[in-house]
Amino acid sequence: SSGINAEYGGLRPLCSAAANIPNVANFTSLLSALEEVEIENAPQLVQYIIFPMMVVIQKHNSHPTEVNEAAVKCLLVVVKKVKVTDTSVFLSVFDQVSTMIFPSEKSTFSDELLYLSLQVMLTMFQDITEPSLCLLCTV
Predict the structure, then answer these.
(1) pTM of the predicted model, to two decimals?
(2) How confident is the model at residue 139 (pLDDT cuts 50, 70, 90)?
(3) DSSP-assigned letter for residue 126
(4) For position 102, what pLDDT does the model report?
(5) Which residues are CB-neighbours of 136 under 8 A, at least 6 positions away?
(6) Which of 5, 25, 34, 95 could join 77 via S-S bond, C-beta 3.0 to 4.6 A?
(7) Nearest Cα to 34, choosing from 80, 68, 65, 93?
């Protein structure tokens, strides 16, 4: 547990920077750190780590494409490393990322953003083992 706290301690300032000033530079720094950090055994940290990404995705229309892409790249690294087992976190990510895949008529997304969003969804669904989440697969 102390190792997990130390890992998140290193990510905390990067997550804060990306949440407070959502730009490509901050998400690139966060992405580099996420690729290096051992978070596989810390599913309880997922909602904190993904917070800045979710903020950008929720308000994607107010961010440049490059920032949206950088945020979803970070999210993809997280879901590849950590199985999302918390139902509310899973549904939140699913709900927000699906808006990137099935945008309203007003929104248009780059091919890269669509691809990254699909990768996030695919990775999350491949890892489903929680009974409460398995119900989603049968709907």
Answers:
(1) 0.84
(2) very low
(3) H
(4) 80
(5) 94, 128
(6) 34
(7) 80
